[in-house]
Amino acid sequence: MIAARLKTEYLINPIGIDAATPRLFWNCQDGRNQTAYQIIAVTDDGKVLWDSERVESSSMQAAWGGLPIKPKTKVLWKIRLWDENNTPGDWQEASFETGIDAWTAKWITGNYKVNKKKRYPVDCFRRQFTVPDRKKARLYITACGLYEAKLNGTRVGNFILAPGITDYRKRVQYQTYDVTELLCKGKNTLTVQLADGWYRGSCGAWALKNQYGTETKLLAQLEITHADGSVQVIGTDENWDWSNDGPIRFADNKDGERYDANAVPGYCGKAKVTAHPVTPAASNNVPVTEHEHLSARLLRTPAGKTVLDFGQNIAGYVSFSLMAGSGQTIRLRFGELLDEQGEFTQKNIQCSNKKITTPLQQVIYTCKEGLNEYQTTFAIFGFQYVLVETDVEICPADFTAIAVYSDMERTGWFESSNALLNRFVENTVWSAKNNHADLPTDCPTRERHGWSGDAQIFCPTASFLFDYRSFARKYLNDLYDWQRPDGKLPQIAPEGGTDAYMKFMDGSVGWADAGVLMPYALWKQYGDTEILRRFLPGMRRYARFMQNRCGKWYPGAKRTGLKGEERAYLSNYGQAYGEWAEPDEVHHMTWKDCAVPHPEVATAYTAHVMDCMAEIERALGNVKAAEEYRAFADGCRKSYQALRKTQAYCLDTDRQAWLVRPLAFGLLDEEQKEFAEKRLLEALEHYGWRIGTGFLSTPLILDVLAEIDLDAAYRLLENEEMPGWLFMPKNGATTVWEAWEGSSAPNGGIASLDHYSKGAVCRWLFDTMCGIRVDGENHFVIAPRPGGHFTHARAVYVSVYGKVESGWEKENNGAVYRVVIPANCTAALLLPGREAISLSTGIYTFRG
């Protein structure tokens, strides 16, 4: 037996992490049961840092057992396993490296006075230096803005849009690069370009500027270790050359780039030393990198326009290579769709008034004589189509679309007899990729906000589709960096670009609850109690914030008529989004919906969060705290039950969300529960078995229906009419739409076609349809539930404990089930109508 998928703090061979006592993870391969392991960790010069010796354990993770690792230390670790026969396997190796602890470099900026009402070309910095020899070299670098570094003309690393997005006033991420092979003996040149990025460029739906500052700045420290062990340090300071006359004349992460291929930076000035109050921290996350490369098909629109169709809606940019004359221009505009006349349009992704239209999503390129090669540096766009406006002769082979997103390992696959559902799952994967560039965004076009509501409802699905641990941890840092002294958590994090009038929506249930519901979901999926410990103080503050809202009245709130104990645990305070975005014919939303509390939604989520907190506290051994949270949740249930007996919030309703939520969260008494279950089926019948829930309840409805009537769940899943999941791929979608109606949304068609939230239903395909559930360390519950018109379905999930598979195929009056349990794991198999079966490692086939 050997160890596979070796990871350090969730990452593969990370460089520049800030964990002095990291956790190590692995899976087992080529055997049945791990009975012991041994880990040996050494420095790159062979010094032993830790030898665990033989540890009798079946666990596939280990806490660091040596002394805390010093900064800037490369660690080579190897592991061997003993199997059920007490036979040791071959050693398997991995590595990690700790980051920097002390910066001697200085923050530098362009040598000009900033007028915050103006936009500036990209800053170009240069440092030339001589190296006698090199044993190893590391570049530690970050920016308030976006940077791209080159050493002797070669790009350093593969991180796109580095250093990523944070609230730069509170957290700045730095990267560490091994640049040993880029250095040469003698003269070397390090250059860095610095753009506005999120720091002072466009943020949010209305492209607000200067959200984190007005002065972009760079911090870089190159450390070169010589053969004799001495260290040469090249840090940013006032000796760096600077100019802003390079080829990128304008760069904005939403509006795009203006590029003049004839311009060459002169570096005629010197950088200006500045300061920043935040000490950079390692991101401890996967980088944003390039992925799929797509070729184009050339279209001529009815109006004679030239459009490139890449066949897939992506987030990324275009590269091209073509011949042109000096001064010729190429304008590229990026969009998601063609309008009803077959013309290119950006209207569905743009906000527009008399002062501004945003995002522009464009590249304006001025050619040089001869061969022109270009690739966007400081922007990504959401697009399938590119409008090309130029007098340069082009062909589609000149252009390549490149998808750009965080380098999360794909871990989940689903396939069934329904081609539309298969396409919807892949659409969800694409929308997830397109909205994960260091931040879980709502769309890669218009807002690009880190909405907490989107993140929390999608987290369980993301955790099946990807190894989501490091990415989610980073986003939770963003949430808790924002947290207010009273415990409130935000609707958007980082908050840059949030319109001023929206501040009253912070703390809205379903959104701010991400601070608890995401760690809870990650714990359940990955068995990671460390993420609970890490964020527990903040989670407790948020739970107290929710509790403090109960029993109070908010100006403008609808009177419920509840009094005394019935009102004591009712949450009817603060502006909130409520269910949000139900189909327009179910509930027509106006701005007034967001100006008042929503006691049904808020009380339900308060109870749910308290239930989760009770589980979390108990898992961490805090029994008293768990009992207190459970008691508060029970109080919320009683208030909720009383609320649903009032006329205004009666259970006798066709609004599916008002029935799904209490059933999903277990909020009703037995009589109410029985009524709500029947009433939900009636509501679906009245709506033609189309989905009528909104943002929060859509991920929950199939779970609820499966408990009432499995056939009902499948009937809703298989619906191909609008509103419905399969309506999207049936109408040619390659990603998940923001609105059920797609570009025909009732808000004037302003709706992204790349918005992953409705894809949260895919979690149900894995954990219910195919029945894969993680159930503690090294253990699964496999409980597939065939149904509907499907003839077969199969899911594959590379879990934290290894690859597990579950599938079924109908035959005659039964089904054939195929299950694969990974090495060193067990499972309880629950087939319909049969007693539980205990499984160990292996491949199994059952008929039933």
Q: What overall form do the CA principal axes indicate? A: globular
Main pleated sheet:
10 strands, mixed
Number of strands: 45
**How many helices?**
15
Quaternary: single chain
Helix content: 10-25%
How would you describe this protein?
The protein is an alpha+beta fold and 848 residues long. The strands form 10 sheets. Strands 20, 21, 25, 26, 27, 28, 33, 34, 35 and 36 form a 10-stranded mixed β-sheet that branches. Strands 2, 4, 5, 6, 8 and 9 form a 6-stranded mixed β-sheet that branches. A 6-stranded antiparallel β-sheet has the order 14-13-16-11-19-22. A hairpin with a 5-residue loop joins strand 17 and strand 18.
Give descriptors for this structure.
globular; alpha+beta; 6-stranded mixed sheet
Topology:
Elements: E1 2-8, E2 15-17, E3 23-29, E4 36-43, E5 48-51, E6 55-56, E7 61-63, E8 74-82, E9 92-98, E10 108-109, E11 123-131, E12 136-144, E13 146-151, E14 154-155, E15 173-178, E16 186-195, H1 197-200, E17 217-225, E18 231-235, E19 241-243, E20 248-252, E21 256-260, E22 269-270, E23 272-273, E24 281-282, E25 288-294, E26 297-300, E27 306-324, E28 329-335, E29 337-338, E30 344-345, E31 351-352, E32 357-358, E33 362-366, E34 370-375, E35 381-390, E36 399-406, E37 412-416, H2 419-434, H3 452-465, H4 469-482, H5 514-526, H6 530-549, H7 564-568, H8 599-619, H9 623-643, H10 656-665, H11 670-686, H12 701-708, H13 710-717, H14 727-730, H15 762-769, E38 772-774, E39 779-782, E40 792-799, E41 802-811, E42 814-821, E43 826-829, E44 837-839, E45 842-847
Parallel strand pairs: 2-9, 15-24, 21-33, 39-43
Antiparallel strand pairs: 1-3, 3-7, 4-5, 4-6, 4-8, 8-9, 10-23, 11-16, 11-19, 12-15, 12-17, 13-14, 13-16, 17-18, 19-22, 20-21, 25-36, 26-27, 27-34, 27-35, 27-36, 28-33, 28-35, 29-30, 31-32, 37-40, 38-39, 40-41, 41-42, 42-45, 43-44
Helix pairs in contact: 3-5, 3-15, 4-5, 5-6, 6-8, 8-9, 8-10, 10-11, 12-13
